[in-house]
Amino acid sequence: MTPTRLLLHTCCAPCSVKCIDSLAEENIRPALFWYNPNIHPFTEYRERRDTLVKFAADTGLELISNDEYGLRPFVQGIYTKDATEFADKTPQRCTYCYRLRLEKTAARAAEAGFDYFSTTLLISPYQNHDLIHSIGEELGEAYCVKFLYRDFRPLFRAGQAKARELGLYMQKYCGCIFSEEERYT
Ligand code: SF4
Fold first, then answer.
1. Can you spell out the DSSP letters for 14-33?
2. How many whole angstroms separate alpha carbon 148 and alpha carbon 146?
3. How would you class 115 by CB atoms within 10 Å of its CB: exposed for 0-12, middle for 13-18, buried for 19 or more?
């Protein structure tokens, strides 16, 4: 049987731990994809990126990196792009942020001949899960590469615990400078 080729957008190493374990139970060994221009400031971005680089090396998983620290275009983007859809309780910037990262992943997956793409954001109980799912499906159709949807949320706590055991860097806020402010005020 041909193995499933999955490009897994990876928001950070801790969130990826249990997604990878769960996929392994389905005999899926993903390639990880780093593209997170939403993480600020630079020292935080570097810490999360370097943690994933080391984690990927330790686990022997392929890591494809689109290494782009994007403070300026990100801030500009959330104020200029129309991101009003699903603007219920989710900040408009998050809609923009999900789409930005998932679109890059879908495009890369299509270009590199992957069968599927997905994201570790699906493990977080703090994100708008249904919105991520919906954007993923839409982009899958647009880029002709299937979105692999899984509800990893029940594994979140166990994943965080395992990440701590592994000594991975654990971030204290979602990523953007706005979420950092909200975390500490
Ligand atoms: S809070 Fe998180 S998901 Fe929302 S815009 Fe900031 S980094 Fe992106």
1. HHHHHHHHHHHHTT--PEEE
2. 6
3. middle
Q: Whose CA is nearest to atom 3 of ligand 1?
A: 94
39 Cα nearest atom in ligand 1: 7
pTM across the whole model: 0.94
Q: Which residues, 6 or more positions from 12, have their beta carbon under 8 angstroms from its beta carbon?
A: 36, 48, 51, 52, 120, 171
Q: What is the total residue count of the chain?
A: 185
- pLDDT mean for each 10 residues of the chain (185 residues): 85 98 97 98 98 98 96 89 50 91 98 98 97 97 98 98 98 95 91
Give the pLDDT confidence score for residue 25 in this predicted structure. 97
Pull the structure tokens for residue 20: 């990878």
